[in-house]
Structures are given as structure tokens and as C-alpha cells.
Design a protein that fits this description.
This protein is an alpha/beta fold and about 350 residues long. It has 8 helices and 21 strands.
């Protein structure tokens, strides 16, 4: 390995691979570091029946269409296969099983990455690990009776993996609603919380061009309505996509309000309803964790201060996969190419101080 790399990309999911491909097309050197054993491994940690929120025509990365018919929704496992083939087909320089412990600005210029195999020095870094690294479970969970099984939605696999008895799913976003509907086929399920706004399924199914124009071109940080939505998502979560309140009702899922407290080991809603359940699934989202980047300033949501993924603090440092990085589509596969293209064109090299 060279003593000073041009660009190091941390993370070999869809974001990191897209950046690597675009750099390769420009004949620019880069190195992709992946902490797991294969590219795209994070997709294999989802629940078994998970399908992407967008149809196949919007699930490809630069230079490679997703290999499925328009209108079909790929599974998480199909996405794993696609990403691994993408890395192999374009011979992207992915180094697996490499954990980055620290990232710091080098006073001599560029950056230093601390790994188990020794330090790596580079003029640019793209952190492509996204903004949802740490599962979030509210502190009220600590008060629950020890006999109640608790797990985060990221640990849910399928109904057979959940013990018999009543289940409470906490968090009425897309993941919570989809898990609740699936579990309702085998368990009594109560879904707790206030639902986020819905993206109408009819819009996606019958007006796909209009749907994509809306989420990719209108709902961006470049428009007043987009900036307003970005703040709402930061405060309350992303909208329901490919699921709805009506879907949960049709599946027989019971509704309850926001969890207010725990009394005598059982959860109590804001309306005073006590929930007697055997299992609690916390579909309460994730939190960002950039504490391993020395000196990085973050906003109220724990995200780096940036403009379209480019750090406003450290020249030469970029990010991919941040919530609403530029638009609503930044959070799905179809928005990766635009964000990656902007970063590759505009991310400057770090200079010596």
C-alpha cells in the first residue's frame, strides 16, 4: 500500500461502492475499507422478508441496472448479491475485515486512519457508513420486567424467531408497521406510537414517474418544501413507504398510543393503557455515531455539519448515506448515484496546514 493514498472510502455498501466506481471511471486511485467479510453485508442483517421500498428500476448503482423487471421490489438478499457482483464486476478495490478505529486530521496534511493493521494516510476520506449506526432503545426499557423479552427491530428475523404470546411493537414508522403486520399472522400484536405521514401506495404503483419526480427532484434541500420536510424527518422520522395505517388495520394489528412509562414492570401508554405482553420489539430507529472521528462537530441529531455530504469543518472529508443528505431519495438506493456524483466532483483534497 502507498504511503499516502488519494482517497479512502470507509464502508462497502451501496454508497461506498458507488463512490469507488465513479472514481474508477475518472482513473482516480481509491481504497475501500469494509469491516465485514463481504461488500453489502449490512443488508444480510435485515429481517427475512424485507423488500426494498422502491421498485427495481430505481435500485441500480452507476453503471449497472438492477437485474429485475420494472415494478418488482427486490429483497434484501437480492441486494446483497447485486452489491457483491457489482464490486467483483468492476474490480473495485475493496479490502474486507478492516475495522477503522479512529479517523483524525494529520497536521502534516491529509488524514490518518487507525486500523488493526496499522495506520493509513490519505488525502481524502469518504465516510460511507450512513447515519444510522447504533440501534436506539429508549431508557424506559430498563424498567420492564425481566420476564419480557426485548429486541430491537434490527435483531428481528421472522415470526418463528419470536416466542409465543402477545407482542408490542414500539414505533409506527415503516419498519414497525411492516414487522407488526407480518407478526400478526402468528401473534397478537399491538403497534404503539403515532404513525408518520404516508407516501400513498397508489402514487408509487400507478404514477411511478410522478412519484420519482416528487421524491428525487422536488423534495430536496434546494426547495422550501424539501427543507421543511428534512426538518420534520429529523424530528419525527421518515414517512411510511409501501405500508399504511390501513394495512395494519387489515392485518388485525391493534393500536396503542405513545409509551409514557413503566409501572410494576409493564408499559403504560400516554392514555393510561397498560400493555400485558411477552415480547417488546423496539422499532425506534437508530442514532448516528461519529465519535471515532476526532474533533468532528455534529448537529442536534448527531450528524456532521455538511453541505451535500461535504464536511464544512474538514476539507477533504465527505460523507455518504446521511438522512436527507440532499433529498428524500438520499435515503434509498435510487438517490445514491446523484449524491455520489456530487461528492466525486466537488470533494477537494486536504492540504497541509
Amino acid at each position: 500500500m502507498k504511503s499516502m493514498m488519494d482517497t479512502v472510502i470507509i464502508g462497502a455498501g451501496q454508497c461506498g461502492l458507488a463512490i469507488a466506481y465513479l472514481l474508477h471511471q475518472r482513473d482516480e486511485e481509491c481504497l475501500v475499507l469494509e469491516g465485514n467479510s463481504e461488500p453489502g453485508s449490512s443488508w444480510s442483517h435485515r429481517w427475512d422478508s424485507l423488500e426494498l421500498f422502491t421498485p427495481a428500476e430505481h435500485d441500480g448503482l452507476p453503471g449497472s441496472r438492477f437485474p429485475a423487471k420494472n415494478g418488482l421490489y427486490p429483497t434484501a438478499n437480492q441486494m446483497v448479491d447485486y452489491l457483491q457482483h457489482y464490486a467483483r464486476n468492476f474490480q473495485l478495490p475493496v479490502h474486507t475485515n478492516v475495522q477503522v478505529g479512529k479517523l483524525r486530521v494529520d497536521p502534516a496534511g491529509g488524514f490518518e486512519l487507525e486500523t488493526a493493521d496499522g495506520p493509513i494516510h490519505t488525502r481524502r476520506v469518504v465516510v460511507a457508513t450512513g447515519g444510522h449506526q447504533i440501534p436506539h432503545i429508549p431508557t424506559v426499557a430498563e424498567k420492564l420486567d425481566g420476564s419480557i423479552r426485548q429486541l430491537h427491530s434490527s435483531d428481528y428475523k421472522n415470526p418463528d424467531s419470536v416466542a409465543s404470546g402477545a407482542v408490542a411493537v414500539i414505533g409506527f414508522g415503516t419498519s414497525g408497521a411492516q414487522i407488526a403486520c407480518e407478526l400478526a399472522t402468528t401473534h397478537p400484536v399491538t403497534l404503539c406510537g403515532t404513525p408518520t405521514p404516508e407516501v400513498p401506495e397508489r402514487l408509487i404503483r400507478y404514477a411511478p414517474v410522478l412519484y420519482w419526480f416528487l421524491i428525487h427532484h422536488i423534495l430536496t434541500r434546494g426547495t422550501p418544501v424539501g427543507r421543511k420536510l428534512a426538518t420534520k424527518i429529523g424530528d419525527h422520522g421518515s414517512p411510511l413507504i409501501r405500508t399504511s395505517v390501513a394495512d395494519t388495520e387489515a392485518a388485525g394489528v391493534l393500536r396503542a398510543g405513545r409509551i409514557e412509562d413503566v409501572l410494576d414492570g409493564a408499559m403504560v401508554t400516554a392514555e393510561g393503557e397498560k400493555l400485558d405482553v411477552a415480547t417488546v420489539i423496539w422499532a425506534t430507529g437508530f442514532r448516528a455515531d461519529f465519535s471515532w472521528i476526532e474533533g468532528l462537530r455534529t448537529d442536534a441529531y448527531g450528524l456532521p455539519i455538511h453541505h451535500r455530504g461535504i464536511s464544512e469543518q474538514f476539507p477533504g472529508l465527505g460523507f455518504m448515506g446521511l438522512p436527507f443528505q440532499y433529498g428524500l431519495s438520499s435515503g434509498i438506493i435510487g438517490g445514491v448515484a446523484r449524491d455520489a456524483g456530487y461528492l466525486v466532483r466537488h470533494l477537494a483534497f486536504s492540504r497541509a496546514s
